[in-house]
Amino acid sequence: MKKLDKFVLKSFIGPLILTFFIVLIILILQFLWMYIDELAGKGLELKIMAELLFNFSLTFVPMALPLAILLASLMTFGNMGEYSELTAIKSSGIPLGRIMRPLVIMISVICVVSFFFSNNVLPYANRQARTLLQDIRRKRPDINLQAGTFNNDIDGFSIKITEKDPETNRLDRVYIYDHRNNRGNSDVIYADSAYMRVTPDETAMSMVMYNGYSYSEMPEREPGGEEKKHPFRKDVFKEQTIVVSLSGFDLQRTEIDLFKSNAAMKNIAQLTHDIDSLNKRYTTKVNQNYNEFTRTLLFTERNQNAPPEHILEKTVAPVFDTEFLYDSLSVIERKTAVSRAIANIKSASNYLSTQGESLHADVKFIKRYEVNWNKKFTLSVACLVFFLIGAPLGAIIRKGGLGTPAVISILFFVIWYVISLSGEKLVEENLISTVAGMWASTYILLPVGIFLTYKASSDSVIMNIETYLGFFRMIKDYLYRLFIIGTRRRYSVEEKKI
Questions:
Q1: Would 225 be classed as within a structural domain?
Q2: Is the pTM of the predicted complex or chain greater than 0.90?
Q3: In terms of domains, do 101 and 89 share one?
Q4: What phi and psi, each to the nearest 5 degrees, are found at residue 391?
Q5: Based on the domain organization, do 388 and 451 belong to the same domain?
Q6: Residue 257 within a domain
Q7: What is d(CA 12, CA 400) in angstroms, rounded to the nearest whole number?
Q8: Quick check: is 367 in a domain?
Q9: What gap in Å lies between CA 178 and CA 194, rounded to an integer?
Q10: Pair (177, 277) in one structural domain
Q11: Per 3-state DSSP, what percentage of the chain is helix, strand, and coil (rounded to 5)?
Q12: I need a labelling partner for 329 at 20 to 30 A (CA). Which of 60, 96, 309, 482 fits?
């Protein structure tokens, strides 16, 4: 390896690692922002949160890598151009393509690694992350009694407190409605004050109440079986304790295969097998619907006395002369025939509408698998596409640091993301082919990268701000000259009048 290659690789690897972790942290923060309502108040352990964030960070790697490469290439070549390192290398007769060659090889290796990561690691990480998130969603929140509101977190109880002392955790004027017998509000407990504590093993909760009353209706069945309600029973207590089990408040882990049927949880081989099976099933379903429609709905009845088919072929017009057959019917028979025809048409229309919606849902399901199959390739190829955009663009702009490259990177990434997302939606709706939709961002932005590489190799000033400032200065000078000429002509005309 030559010194130039070592220098370029060394200049690129540092910004790549830095930008990769920056982008990854931004995506993790976006995830937390989206799911903060489902994570907050669950009393999750630090180990569970770390496992959740780690699994989701693995799922963000294929998305973070292209943006990190774009930003790192802009920073690297922008710094080299800003400090005249590119000028010095080019002056020695080395073209830009030769400077980019070691990075092209490196990015190609990263594309291959990204593909194998998406194919092998990503499905497992997706299953782990989604399963754990589903378990957290099912986890019951910690009991948090708020003054003035009813709390139904504990099964079978509805609790309301009037006041709460935040220092001593004392609960004042407590109302407890016991619904464990499913008899409505027939059992009520009131206490002047109470304290709620969780047992040391965190399996149960005890509520100690002081100076209160318990009200309970005592139903009694009549001989006929009807329930008769007598006046309620009232008990007075100075201290009473209620112990409630907290099973269901802990995190219950489920098997990892919960989401194994999801398309995002499968690799290339599994997706290929499923797509082939789904297409065969779809074709079989279409043929069955066609046969059922033609046999039972399109032709509902056949004339039992009709001649054989070889005779019908020669006498189609006389046998199926609808006007002659209709005129030969009586008035009542005509009405009956028209009513039956309308009913058959409505039935056939409803059948076609129902089966059409079912087939459309099947097509969307198949397209979702095809989208995930192609996405494993498009995300990997995007690394090379973004490098071909970022490296020459940095050489043209000649601005290093994190400011200008970050703005340009976000702009191109948003364009790529919008194109990819739009193509994906169009594919799922079966409006365009899978290849055209999923690879749209590649064949739109790849020519842009090739064009920028050509311009950077020829030392183009297409992105030099001085070029555009000079153009605007030229327009300003031209307008100024027009103004001066017009002013002189106006003065000369006025002098002639005088």
A1: yes
A2: no
A3: yes
A4: -65, -55
A5: yes
A6: no
A7: 12
A8: yes
A9: 16
A10: no
A11: 65, 15, 20
A12: 309
Closest by CA position to 199, among listed 235, 245, 160: 245
The partner residues of 97 in beta bridges, in order of sequence, read none
Q: Are residues 322 and 221 in the same domain?
A: no
Cα separation, 458 vs 456, whole angstroms: 5
> How many Å apart are CA 90 and CA 105, to the nearest integer?
20
Q: Name every residue whose Cβ is closer than 8 Å to that of residue 461 and which is 6 or more positions away in sequence.
A: 396, 467
Nearest to 27 by CA among 417, 420, 492: 417
Helix (H) or strand (E) holding 68: helix 46-82
Residue where one domain finishes, among candidates 371, 393, 413: 371
Per-residue pLDDT tens digits of the chain, which is 498 residues long: 588 888 888 888 988 999 899 989 988 888 888 877 777 656 677 888 888 889 889 989 988 899 899 888 888 888 887 778 787 887 888 888 888 888 899 999 999 999 999 888 888 888 888 888 877 766 655 556 678 788 776 777 788 888 888 777 788 888 888 877 766 677 888 888 888 777 766 667 788 889 888 877 766 655 555 555 556 677 888 888 887 776 655 555 665 556 667 777 888 888 888 889 888 988 888 888 888 877 777 665 544 444 444 444 444 444 456 677 777 777 788 788 888 888 888 888 888 888 888 888 888 888 888 888 998 899 899 999 999 888 888 888 777 677 777 788 888 888 988 998 898 888 888 888 888 888 988 889 888 888 888 888 776 655 555 555 666 677 777 777 776 777 666 656 555 555
- Asked whether residue 21 falls in the same domain as residue 123, the answer is yes
Domain count, the chain: 3
Give yes or no: residues 298 and 351 share one domain.
yes
Note whether residue 330 is domain-resident. Answer: yes
Containing structural domain, residue 318: 270-371
Cβ contacts of residue 159 below 8 Å, gap of 6+?
A: 145, 150, 151, 174, 175, 176, 177
- Nearest CA to 380 among 8, 15, 120, 112? 112
Residues 116 and 185 in one domain: no
Could you tell me if 117 and 37 lie in one domain?
Answer: yes
